[in-house]
Amino acid sequence: MQLMRRYYSFNQYLKETFPGHRIYKIPVHAGLTCPNRDGKAGTGGCIYCDNRSFSPNTRQNKPLSIKSQVEEGMKFYRTRHQADKFIVYFQSFSNTYAPIEKLRQLYDEATGFPDVVGLSIGTRPDCVSEETISLISKYTKKYLVWMEYGIQSIHNKTLDLINRGHTYDDFAKAVNITKGKGIKIATHIILGLPGETKNDMIKTAQQVGLLGLDGIKIHHLYVAKNTALENRHNESKVKLLTLGEYIPLVCDILENLPEGMVIQRLVGELSESYAIAPAWNVPKAKILSMIEAELDTRGSYQGRLFPKMPR
After folding, report:
1. What is the per-residue pLDDT across 233-285, written as a single tens digit (0 to 9) for each?
2. Separation of CA 191 from chain center
3. Which of the residue ranges 35-49, 91-105, 217-231 would you say has the lowest mean pLDDT?
4. How far is Cα 20 from Cα 252, in angstroms, rounded to an integer?
5. H-only helix segments in the chain
C-alpha cells in the first residue's frame, strides 16, 4: 500500500478497492435504539449524543423504509456527485441491537440493489454476539462489509464519565469475535473528552492500533443541543478543544496509528441547527488542509511513531 497523502484516507481506500467507480455511502436509520437508552445498560445515552444532530434520517417521527432511504440516497448521490456504486451505512444508534431475523431483514433490504456494493454497520461493542457476527459474515461473500464499533476511549474511567454503559473489555471482545470472518473492523474515537490528557488520547490511539483494526473515525468533542453535555457546558464544566489545539493533536494521533489503517474521518460533523460549541466556523475541507499542512511542516505521516512489527 503506497500512500498518496500523509495519511491513508477512506477516499483513497475506495479508489483502490473499486477502481474505476465513484463510491458513496448512503446513511440510513433502521429505527433501532441503544442499550444505554432503553435501560438494559443505562438510560439517557452518551452525554454528548443526540443522533438528530448528525443524522437527518432520525429527525422524522417515523423513519422511511430502508428501501426508500437507499433509493433516495442513490438518486441524490448520482445527481450531486455522479456516484455509480454505493455502500449502505447503518449509522444511527446501535444497528445490531435487534433479533437476528430482524437484522437479516434490514440487511437484505439494504443490499437488494444491483449498485449496492457494501454494508457499513455502526454499533456498540456490547451489542454483538457470535450469532450476530455469523449472520453479518455471510454478506462478505458478495459485499464489502465494515463493522464500526464505537469505543471513544480505551479508559474505563472516561467511559463511565460519558455514560457509555460498556467497558474497554467489551470492545476487545467484540473485536476478537469479529476478526477472521472477512469483515473489516473500524472504531470511533473522540478527542477532547472530559478529564483526558494528550497522553490519555495517544494511549487510546496506540491501543486500538495494536488490535490490528482496519479503520478508524476520529472526532472532536462537540456540544449538541438537548444533551447532558449541553448542561455541563452551560455550567462551564467542559473545556473544549480550540481548532489551534485540535490540528496538532490529531496529527499526534495519526503518527501513533498503523500506516495501513484507513482513516475514515478526521473531524466530527453536525448540523448547524444543533451545534452549540466549539464554534470553529471553518469548513471541513479547510480543516483537512490544515491537518495535511501540519504533517507536511513536521515532515511526518501516519504511522511514524507506531511500533514496527517484526517481519
Report:
1. 888 888 999 999 999 999 999 999 999 999 999 998 877 778 899 989 999 99
2. 13
3. 35-49
4. 33
5. 10-17, 66-81, 100-110, 130-138, 156-161, 168-178, 198-210, 228-234, 243-255, 284-298
Residue-wise DSSP of 79-101: HHH---EEEEEE-SS-TT-S-HH
- Could you count the other beta carbons within 10 Å of the beta carbon of residue 283? 9
- Tell me, rounded to whole angstroms, the distance of Cα 275 from its chain centroid: 19
Buried b (16+ CB within 10 A) or exposed e, 244-265: ebbbbbbbbbbbbbbbebbbbb
Q: What phi and psi values does residue 116 have, to the nearest 5 degrees?
A: -85, 120
d(C-alpha 210, C-alpha 198), whole Å: 19
User: What percentage of the chain reaches a pLDDT higher than 70?
Assistant: 93
Instruction: Give 97: exposed, middle or buried? Use CB within 10 Å, 0-12, 13-18, 19+.
Output: buried
Contact of 212 with 153, CB cutoff 8 Å: no
Give the Cβ contact number of residue 236 at 10 Å.
7
Q: Return d(Cα 182, Cα 201) in angstroms, integer.
A: 29
pTM for this predicted structure: 0.91
Rg (CA), the chain: 19
**Is the pLDDT score of 4 beyond 60?**
no
Q: Which residues pair with 220 in a beta bridge?
A: 191
| CA–CA gap between residue 1 and residue 4 (Å, rounded) | 9
Signed CA dihedral, 286, 242, 269, 281: sign only: negative
Residue (of 149, 150, 145, 148) closest to 134 by Cα position: 145
The C-alpha cell of 110 is what? 439494504
CB atoms closer than 10 angstroms to residue 78: 15
C-alpha cell at 179: 476478526
**Sequence-separated (6 or more) residues with CB below 8 Å from residue 130:** 177
pLDDT tens-digit map of 127-156: 999 999 999 999 999 999 999 999 999 999
Average pLDDT, the chain: 91
